[in-house]
Amino acid sequence: MIARVLVAMDGSEVAERALRYALDVHGDAEIVVLHVTGEPSSMMGEATGMALSEDPEGEIRDQAADVIDRAREIATEYDEEVDIEVAVGRPGKRIVERAEDFDTVVVGTHDGTLVDRLLVGNVAQTVFRGSPVSVTVVR
Q1: What InterPro entries does the database record attribute to this sequence (predicted)?
Q2: Rounded to a whole number, what is the distance in angstroms from the first to the last CA of the chain?
Q3: I need a labelling partner for 80 at 20 to 30 A (CA). Which of 3, 31, 53, 134 fits?
Q4: From start to end of the chain, where are the E strands?
């Protein structure tokens, strides 16, 4: 029996589908949404704001706000509640680290650009290969 489900959300449509899948299939389980924002760096997209901010924690909360709000909206549509966690780091690695506390992980996948795959890596692939528990990849 699946009692605890970790759902990775990054703000994409496919991540929303992953949460919907988890709510449909594992509605009786405790569902935790994990949003991972990149490590502060002057070289990396949204994380640049964190690196340059006087309040990095506030910047992290601001970046995660839309994802958190959307996760709660989707859960409300299902008349369910989800717990939400925000982490900082490399998404695939952080999801794998958290996975050991769950029975299964649900992630969305999208191809991304070649540059995304080379620089960032494929998060779903990292989770699938490294997770200590079963992983469902939703397209």
Answers
A1: Rossmann-like_a/b/a_fold, Universal_stress_UspA, UspA
A2: 24
A3: 134
A4: 4-8, 30-37, 83-88, 104-108, 134-138
pTM for the complete prediction? 0.84
- What is the residue extent of each domain of the chain? 4-138
In the numeric block, the tokens 């759902």 are attached to: 7
Counted residue by residue, the chain has a size of: 139
Q: What does the pLDDT look like over 62-74, one tens digit per residue? A: 889 999 999 999 9
The CATH architecture assigned to 4-138 reads 3-Layer(aba) Sandwich (3.40)
Q: Which amino acid belongs to residue 60? A: I
The 3-state DSSP class for residue 132 equals coil
- What span, in angstroms and rounded, lies between the C-alpha atoms of 109 and 137? 6
Q: Say which DSSP state 39 is in.
A: P
Whether the per-residue pLDDT at 136 is higher than 60: the answer is: yes
